[in-house]
Amino acid sequence: MSQNVSNTDIWQTVYFGYATVMFLVLTVGFLGNVASLVILRYPGHRSKLINPLMINLAVVDLLIIVLVYPSMVATNLLVKPMRVNSLACVCSCFANGAAGITSTATLVAMSGVMYYAIRQSLPRPKIPSIQMNLIVIGTWLYGILLNLPPVIGWSRAVPSKAGFSCGPDWTSSDPSSIAYVIFLLVFGFFLPLVLIFTFHCLIYR
User: Fold this and answer.
1) Whole-prediction pTM value?
2) How far apart are CA 18 and CA 31, in angstroms?
3) Cα–chain center distance at 202
4) Alpha carbons 81 and 78: distance in angstroms, whole number
5) With 0-12 CB in 10 A as exposed, 13-18 as middle and 19+ as buried, what is 149?
6) Within a 10 A sphere around the Cβ of 69, how many other Cβ atoms?
7) Is the four-CA dihedral 158, 66, 113, 139 of positive or negative sign?
8) Do residues 13 and 38 touch, judged by C-beta distance below 8 A?
9) CA nearest 196: which of 104, 98, 118?
10) Tens of pLDDT along 68-112?
């Protein structure tokens, strides 16, 4: 009996410690990104060419902190692992993936904008607001479209080993799942990497 009580006390301490650390991490992340948004709205920063894209990165981070991580922490503390293709698992997979790919697309856009600015050879190069807004919207559409397939039935969302978050089925031998993994790796990782590398080579050549 005392052994059971002791084990229960240990796990309660572990979960309390986990909740405390995650609360501090999320609080610092939230405040840091809010501070970034405030600073980026100052007149001295608003005129910078990549400012809208930097704001976009901060917004993506905030959405992850506000919408994604709390559900992961709650799942952990309640000891209720997610199930394959459950609504919570699909939402977790989509939110995590869309946010990550949107951030990656934003970094690609930043590299492209910096190359464009250098190519213009002007003291203060500019991009029309409409075009910049379309670029920002494009990063979100790219992130959403690449992570939509598991939602509509192409591949599936599966829990991580810990069961507290979900992602695409990376290990399945099903041809459909393999095709989606290849699709995601090509357009979500290799293509952005090649574009960023190319833009930076053009910038520093």
Assistant:
1) 0.82
2) 20
3) 27
4) 9
5) buried
6) 17
7) positive
8) no
9) 104
10) 777 776 766 666 667 787 888 888 889 989 999 999 999 999 999
